[in-house]
Amino acid sequence: MAFDPAELTSEKSLFKIRLAARKIPSSAFNQWVVVVTATLALAYALLPNSSAALLATKVREFAEMGFGFAASILGFLIAGFTVFATITKEQLFHKMAEFIEPTSKLSYLKYNFFAFMRVFIDYLCFCAFCLLIKLAAFPDGPISAILSYLPGTDFTKLCMARIGFVVITASTVYVLLLLKAFVFNIHHVVMTSLRWSMEEAQNKPA
Questions:
Q1: Coil, helix or strand for 100?
Q2: Rounded to two decimals, what is the model's pTM?
Q3: Residue 194's CB: how many other CB atoms inside 10 A?
Q4: Are 87 and 195 spatial neighbours (Cβ–Cβ below 8 Å)?
């Protein structure tokens, strides 16, 4: 079947790109690390001395740290993606677009680009999540005001603090693991581009 160039621009938003990127399998190691981290965070949150005030403070601290880290690291990610986009030859992109990756059923071109875009989008979502905590979960802020009108306020605050602590802890570890995967992807695509160039040169008739 002939390759249709229009298929390259079929995704019209970051949301659709992120949905398509779900077809790319995630690292089993990353998944297990996130699950273990969430389990340990939940165990800590359930300890008798882990009060709602303590957990809420930790959530705010992690959000502050996570937002600064994610916002600053995005510049590094964009630079890495620029390396991938500029060092890879256009002919290689054309070849990658013509072949389908068997697991995700995406073209190898989209498979590689979506692997990078998934990192960008997840970092942006993490930044937005941390910013939401900073704007709405400060002491006596909007979330505290809303919770004060709910029945069982103290228990509700404790549950929300526990959930927030587990989510922010697991999310922070997740974005760190994404950075590890991003660095490997940069290395892999650069080596792939160089290998393709060398093999093309070897296959040319003398």
A1: strand
A2: 0.86
A3: 12
A4: no
